[in-house]
Amino acid sequence: MSQYFADLQPITFEGRDSTNPLAFRHYDATAMLGDRTMAEHLRFAVCYWHNFVWDGSDPFGGQTFDRPWFPADTMDQARQKADAAFEMFRILGVPYFCFHDHDVRPEGDTLAESHERLNEIADYFEQKMEDGGQKLLWGTANMFSNRRYMSGAATNPDPDVFAYCASTVKACMDVTHRLHGENYVLWGGREGYESLLNTDLDRELEQMGRFLSMVVEYKHKIGFKGAILIEPKPQEPTKHQYDYDVATVYGFLKRFGLEDEVKVNVEQGHAILAGHSFEHELAMARTLGIFGSIDMNRNDYQSGWDTDQFPNSPGEAALAYYEVLRAGGFTTGGTNFDAKLRRQSLDAEDLIAAHVGGMDICARGLISAHAMIEDDALEGPRRVRYAGWEGEAAQAMLAKGATLDGIAADAEARDVNPQPVSGAQEKLENIVNRYL
Length: 436
Prior knowledge:
By secondary structure, the chain is α/β, with parallel strands linked by helices. Helices cover 45% and strands 10% of the residues. The chain has two domains: 343 residues, TIM Barrel (Alpha-Beta Barrel); 55 residues, no CATH class.
């Protein structure tokens, strides 16, 4: 039992009128929305890295957080960190967590020692998961922090780095499989380039495609039933990353024949960096059939970089969960808070309060989204707008065998003269606001 959160009690649902900052006002885990509880809809997860690894530093200043397990360079400190993490999961009542290998164990002097340490901490996790009931939403490998990855991981010019990555991912997939993780995520933190002057673009994309293909092959070899997920991001740390956005990832998957094997983990902050809205990226993933999971964290809209803040907009959350519900809801995926405190927020209570607020915003958004779907509030007007395409003549234009010149001849024979019809965007925005 960790003493870091010793003065904090489990968070309970107190309802909308509560003024307690350490209570849920909207998230009632057992409340039913349709045929699922709120907990089953949202499938909340806490990330290991921002909460228990990040020390508060930024590009212009060093450590501000003083955690008892820092500098986390021994296995004893790794276990102390795990104690605090699982205590936090218990207080929040979250069903899932996520981690990188680098988050949970110190790196060894050799690759083999690093793997041994990962398996040792996995043993420790197994007991804690059994005791507390938490599950692993996904595991992943950190292949971007160490200087060996400065020129990429699978896309590195050095084949030994490619081999090192293969060993690292294999070890992480094995542990994820052993802990019954429901997904395995690959984020290409440095899979991109700073300058085309020193980059063989064709070669790097081929390396990345082959590496991902081998990951999928290994998934089937070990019998891992979870989803393989890619997390798109357009830039930062590299100038241009190969997994720019959902559409780019889909094109990459199609090129290597992996579109039925790999899905996406969509992060709100990364969508914003790509110049999109979160709901756009989720809708694109749904439309392309690669929706998997989400990271729920916003950016500061003035700063222009990935600030990883907890969600605080009910409207943004409602539009996001509207697309999640339209996709059929989560299967193996869930809502991971890839979010971190501000570097001035120093206390253990701040970690809890941040997640309480984020979970409440997501719950509020889910409730609004579910109600809009139940009431046909947006789909009804959308059907009316596209109703003309339901007619026999309209469908014939899209059918196999239809030709451009044939359609043109028919339009000229009928002397078509279509008149614009209002898209009524403002009315629809008002409808959404009524549900918030």
